[in-house]
């Protein structure tokens, strides 16, 4: 890095941060509700236009870049999206990392500089672009807004799209294959979706997650997101909608969710507003959205016990018999 | 401890110190000399820890052996807007366990944005014989079972405040677990609970606690039960209603109005979910004494709001939805000359078109009419540099200014220019400004203003703003008192961050998400600055599976004396010297 010196406030890099070598001042700083001022001087760096980003390799120890077996990312640049916003006024949408990065399975990923553009593609392909956590309203407030106006559609799908889940999937696949740039038109006034965060727990994993159903308009993308979220567990999750077999076919081969091949030890279930646990995918998406309280990725063995599995097996049979 | 002829005896010093309450002053005292440090730490009773990971329970306990009150904050502020994934951290349990062993006489625990389990609540309930105050602000992870433990065991409980927390509401029964002999309740806030509580138990509890001053009910408490509750506690100073709607019956209304009139000491009102406008006049009898009014859940239109607000001449704090509109704010400006704090929330934040006639003009009116206005949170859809300039000149006493123009990157709607000059005027004229949130179209210029004038600024929130690293550099190098900086979706990257690395040790924390900070830079920062925890969040996989130049999703940097934390979930990586080992 040219012209930059980083000066630590005291001591060398080897100073331990353990309590035994604490100075009183340190603890005070940390405990005080008001901090002292006086930043250390750092040499001014030349922040002219001429400065390129020079990346030093990591100093001391090695760098070892694992070559992961997962996805090899192809880096998208602004050139890939001719009608998108220029880098300086890049689109602001940054949909929840999980949903946008679910595309990573398909050789597209985020990049430096054009991250937001790529995100907006991913997001736009889902429907109108959405921004997580904006406007900045607390959870209680956001929830209260949702429950206040049942008449207005919680998800502001733009007028061109039909409301049935199936047609949405059709449109989405078309968008993806065309790389349809209309969706990235940033002149079009953005449609900010409301958030609908629900908890997701997976059997066997202690820490639950939260997923924003507001960024999804179909079971397919939800399934993909969940799959990415719980990728650490290698079990595949079965996920059959009432049109389950259709998702696999309509959306391109790349998009095929691990969830749909029926070979798994887990099923995706949800608790509805009556407190009952149901299989995800049985009802139309809008109905699901209006009644879901939380999600659970349940072991198939337990689902058997709950009486959910027979329906599952029936679907599996149907799926296998349906010609592709 | 050495005593000289010149020093005061310990007891005298201790007595003197007991008058010093501010944390900052206490810190100063402790630095005078070793003996003062010792005396001070033994007689410190109250501690505030702004970031629970900046210090550890053993460190705290070792230094302050006789605490009675502890306040801890966990997750970063942006967790309120779902930017911090679930499982990130902020676990209260290790603290509570440690304190249970070390502070048997602990009286007060206040937690904000922390994960609290039922187990922790049970430990609190059983470990502290003189426990008095439990405030769980924006916390999560516990159920009503934990509350039952508190109710059943804390004989001396004065305050139970669950504001904005996410509680798994299993049953409303827990309220009945307060024994009949329990009468010391002074403050109860259950407004965040989703389900009905046992109403009979609630009524009995309220009426047998003569010192109850604050009662904030949840939405599920029906309006027709409110009069009874009020009659049981005529000494109430702060009330949060439940749902403010019912079948329109004359007897319900008159009952309600009479009950309100009986509360001669009522100063603050909130709640008002699902308001039926025709019931609003029931509170008119108390309007003239109100200093605080929270109508931010009240979906009533302007005329009803105006009528109500114009009766509250002593109002100091108003939270309201944008249904109040510019007209209503003009009336507010004319009626409430004592107003100190105004928050206007959006009724339809996700709609494309404005649904109400609320513009920058409303805020301008209030800034003109209310000389004491110092704290503003305002959601609107259009703003101009001229308006901001006017507001700044009207109100140089502003200390907190948070403006949210709903559409990101909105320019000045009159000139189509960035809003740099407007916000520049705010920081220039409001010399005591401590907190600022920006929105709208902003270039690096606004940050130059902020760095130049924002000398007292302690907290800055930035979204969708700036052009380059210069912006970040201005803030980090110019704002001498900056403690918390949170940034999202801005083109700020490595240069400014690394050039100002030392500054970060003078701050509580820095949050950057969806910016352009590379993984490589994070590693450098973490390795160079051992007293900072540099945490990278990435839900798509380990950051080193991508090139070093790839931007990280989320970066959270904070100073600490406790070293890297050990409770990070799978999607958080720490960039310290051992980071390479951890990632591999």
Automatic annotation (TrEMBL), chain A:
Localization: Nucleus
Domain of life, per lineage: Eukaryota
Signal peptide bounds: none
Residue ranges occupied by any PB1 domain in the UniProt entry: 195-302
Keyword Transferase recorded: no
Chain positions covered by the region annotation Disordered: 1-135, 155-187
InterPro entries xref list: AUX/IAA_dom, AUX_IAA, PB1-like
Record field: compositional bias (Low complexity): 82-100
Residue stretches of biased makeup (Basic residues): 57-74
UniProt biased composition (Basic and acidic residues): 165-179
Sorted UniProt keywords: Auxin signaling pathway, Nucleus, Repressor, Transcription, Transcription regulation
Subunit details: Homodimers and heterodimers.
UniProt record similarity statement: Belongs to the Aux/IAA family.
Function statement: Aux/IAA proteins are short-lived transcriptional factors that function as repressors of early auxin response genes at low auxin concentrations. Repression is thought to result from the interaction with auxin response factors (ARFs), proteins that bind to the auxin-responsive promoter element (AuxRE). Formation of heterodimers with ARF proteins may alter their ability to modulate early auxin response genes expression.
Protein name (Swiss-Prot/TrEMBL): Auxin-induced protein
Organism encoding this protein: Stylosanthes scabra
TrEMBL record, chain B:
Keyword Electron transport: no
SMART domains for this protein: FBOX, LRR_CC
InterPro entries assigned: COI1_F-box, F-box-like_dom_sf, F-box_dom, Leu-rich_rpt, Leu-rich_rpt_Cys-con_subtyp, LRR_dom_sf, Transp_inhibit
SUPFAM superfamilies: F-box domain, RNI-like
UniProt keyword rRNA-binding present: no
Gene3D superfamilies recorded: 1.20.1280.50, Ribonuclease Inhibitor (3.80.10.10)
Residue ranges of domain F-box in the record: 8-49
Assigned keywords, A-Z: Auxin signaling pathway
Pfam families with a match to the protein in the record: F-box_5 (PF18511), LRR_6 (PF13516), Transp_inhibit (PF18791)
Stated name of the protein: GPI-anchored mannoprotein
The species this protein was found in: Stylosanthes scabra
């Amino acid at each position: 890095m040219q012209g930059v010196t980083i000066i630590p406030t005291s001591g060398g890099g080897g100073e331990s941060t353990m309590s035994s070598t604490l100075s009183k001042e340190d603890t005070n700083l940390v405990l005080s509700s008001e901090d002292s001022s006086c930043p250390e001087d750092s040499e001014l760096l030349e922040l002219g236009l001429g400065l390129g980003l020079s990346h030093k390799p990591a100093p001391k120890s090695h760098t070892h870049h694992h070559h992961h077996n997962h996805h090899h990312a192809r880096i998208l640049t602004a050139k890939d999206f001719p009608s998108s916003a220029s880098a300086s006024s890049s689109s602001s949408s940054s949909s929840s990392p999980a949903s946008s990065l679910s595309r990573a399975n398909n050789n597209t990923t985020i990049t430096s500089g054009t991250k937001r553009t790529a995100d907006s593609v991913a997001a736009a392909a889902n429907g109108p672009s959405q921004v997580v956590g904006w406007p900045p309203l607390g959870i209680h407030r956001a929830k209260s807004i949702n429950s206040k106006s049942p008449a207005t559609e919680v998800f502001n799908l733009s007028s061109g799209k039909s409301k049935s889940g199936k047609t949405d999937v059709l449109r989405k696949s078309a968008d993806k294959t065309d790389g349809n740039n209309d969706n990235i038109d940033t002149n079009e006034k953005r449609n900010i979706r409301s958030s609908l965060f629900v908890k997701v727990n997976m059997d066997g994993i202690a820490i639950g997650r939260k997923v924003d159903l507001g960024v999804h308009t179909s079971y397919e993308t939800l399934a993909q997101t969940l799959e990415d979220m719980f990728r650490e567990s290698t079990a595949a999750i079965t996920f059959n909608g009432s049109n389950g077999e259709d998702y696999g076919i309509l959306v391109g081969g790349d998009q095929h969710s691990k969830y749909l091949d029926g070979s798994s030890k887990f099923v995706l279930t949800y608790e509805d507003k009556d407190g009952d646990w149901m299989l995800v995918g049985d009802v139309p998406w809008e109905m699901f959205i209006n009644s879901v309280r939380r999600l659970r990725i349940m072991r198939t063995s337990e689902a058997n016990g709950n009486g959910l599995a027979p329906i599952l097996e029936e679907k599996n049979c149907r799926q296998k018999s349906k010609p592709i | 401890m050495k005593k000289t002829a010149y020093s005061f005896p310990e007891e005298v010093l201790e007595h003197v110190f007991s008058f010093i309450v501010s944390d900052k002053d206490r810190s100063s005292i402790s630095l005078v000399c070793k003996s003062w440090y010792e005396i001070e730490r033994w007689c410190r009773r109250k501690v505030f820890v702004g970031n629970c990971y900046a210090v550890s329970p053993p460190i705290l306990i070792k230094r302050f052996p006789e605490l009675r009150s502890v306040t801890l904050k966990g997750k970063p502020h942006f967790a309120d807007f779902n930017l911090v994934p679930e499982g990130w951290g902020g676990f209260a349990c290790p603290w509570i366990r440690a304190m249970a062993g070390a502070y048997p006489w602990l009286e007060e625990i206040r937690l904000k944005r922390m994960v609290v389990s039922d187990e922790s609540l049970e430990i609190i309930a059983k470990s502290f014989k003189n426990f008095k105050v439990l405030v769980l602000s924006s916390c999560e992870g516990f159920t009503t079972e934990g509350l039952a433990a508190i109710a059943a065991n804390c004989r001396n409980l004065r305050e139970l405040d669950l504001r904005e927390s996410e509680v798994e509401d299993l049953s409303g029964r827990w309220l009945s677990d307060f024994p009949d002999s329990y009468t010391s309740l002074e403050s109860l806030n259950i407004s965040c609970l989703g389900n009905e509580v046992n109403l009979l138990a609630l009524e009995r509890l309220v009426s047998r606690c003569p010192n109850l001053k604050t009662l904030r009910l949840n939405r599920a408490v029906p309006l027709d039960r409110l009069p009874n509750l009020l009659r049981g506690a005529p000494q109430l100073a702060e009330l949060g209603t439940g749902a403010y709607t019912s079948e329109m019956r004359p007897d319900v209304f008159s009952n309600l109005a009479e009950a309100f009139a009986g509360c001669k000491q009522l100063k603050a009102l909130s709640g008002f979910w699902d308001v039926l406008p025709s019931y609003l006049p029931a509170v008119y009898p108390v309007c003239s004494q109100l200093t605080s009014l929270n109508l931010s859940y009240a979906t009533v239109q302007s005329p009803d709001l105006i009528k109500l607000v114009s009766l509250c001449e002593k109002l100091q704090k108003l939270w309201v939805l944008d249904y109040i509109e510019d007209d209503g704010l003009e009336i507010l400006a004319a009626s409430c000359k004592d107003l100190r704090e105004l928050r206007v929330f959006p009724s339809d934040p996700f709609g494309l078109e404005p649904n109400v006639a609320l513009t920058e003009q409303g805020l301008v009116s209030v800034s003109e009419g209310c000389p004491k206005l110092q704290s503003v949170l305002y959601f609107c859809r259009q703003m101009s540099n001229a308006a901001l300039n006017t507001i700044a000149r009207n109100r140089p006493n502003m200390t907190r200014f948070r403006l949210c123009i709903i559409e990101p990157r909105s320019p000045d709607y009159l000139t189509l220019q960035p809003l740099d000059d407007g916000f520049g005027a705010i920081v220039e004229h409001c010399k005591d400004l401590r907190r600022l949130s920006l929105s709208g179209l902003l270039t690096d210029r606004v940050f130059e203003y902020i760095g130049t004038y924002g000398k007292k600024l302690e907290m800055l929130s930035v979204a969708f703003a700036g052009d380059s690293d210069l912006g970040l550099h201005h803030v980090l190098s110019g704002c001498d008192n900056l403690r918390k900086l949170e940034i999202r979706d801005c083109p700020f990257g490595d240069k400014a961050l690394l050039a100002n690395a030392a500054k970060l040790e003078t701050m509580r924390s820095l949050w950057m998400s969806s910016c352009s900070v590379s993984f490589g830079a994070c590693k450098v920062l973490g390795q160079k600055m051992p007293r900072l925890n540099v945490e990278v969040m990435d839900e798509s996989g380990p950051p080193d599976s991508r090139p070093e130049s790839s931007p990280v999703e989320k970066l959270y940097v904070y100073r600490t004396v406790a070293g890297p934390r050990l409770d990070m979930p799978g999607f958080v990586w720490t960039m310290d010297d051992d980071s390479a080992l951890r990632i591999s």
